[in-house]
Amino acid sequence: MLLETPIGGHATVAGGLAKAGLPYLDRSGSAAVQVYVSNPRGWALAAGDPLQDEAFASGCAERRTVAYVHASLLVNLGSPTPLTVERSVATLEHALGRAAAIGARGVVFHAGSAVDAGHASRAMDQVRDALLPLLDRAAAAGLPKLLVEPSAGGGRSLAARVEDLGPYLAAVERHPWLGVCFDTCHAWAAGHDLSAPGGMAATLDALTATVGADRLWLVHANDSKDTVGSTRDRHESVGRGTIGPAAFAELLAHPAAQGVPVIVETPNDDGAGHSADIALLRSLIPERSSSGRR
Ligand SMILES: [Zn+2]
User: Fold this and answer.
1) pTM of the predicted protein model
2) What gap in Å lies between CA 211 and CA 149, rounded to an integer?
3) CA of 186 to the centre of ligand 1 (A)
4) Which of 39, 110, 121, 184 has its CA 20 to 30 A from that of 255?
């Protein structure tokens, strides 16, 4: 039996989480949603508005929409700068608390980078030291889970190709509170040829072989403006970029992706753009088998 795959988009929630977020759900037809809970390009940690939080949580529940928080893009647990690591941990703590308040399932953060060649050997130990206590505390308190997202590669990335997730998970002893967010544009940029026939399926096979069958918790479905292996992270509307629609059909048919929520982070978040992305993805879901229906 195929599981339902919730598909939705990253919502811009300027003006209020519920006030802007819930109309976005209805406009775009999202059955899954992702939001920022602080400025994605800054370190300031917004307190949140309890009324908006509650309204957003209940609005998502009414619509059976699964929500995720994306942490600030500045988060880098592998940074050679101690203050950056300290702020990254504080940002993830804050995001976990905010995610709990808005009924979100998890917090996505980027795998990070050692930045300097000289820091590469130290960076994974640093991830372990920063992340393990955070995962333990989140698990003990029953907070939402953390999801690591491999990057587009280049610049001493700690995880870009799916195989890089092996050492990353090993660094935190394959902690049960850490899952994976697979971003198609990042994987393509990091050199996985998703547009070749069978390329997406082979990449997801490699992902599953590395992280296990139950560790893929979220997909970011983004097409790309660049060529495979470019290490550039410029998202394009689904099906309109260099990855192309066939790869997304392969993704949605793959066993590892069954029932895993899919979020688009494509350029148009005014409703119209994401509606088209979401509708296209939905049309690419393989037909359910009718056997046993009557
Ligand atoms: Zn992403």
Assistant:
1) 0.95
2) 13
3) 7
4) 110
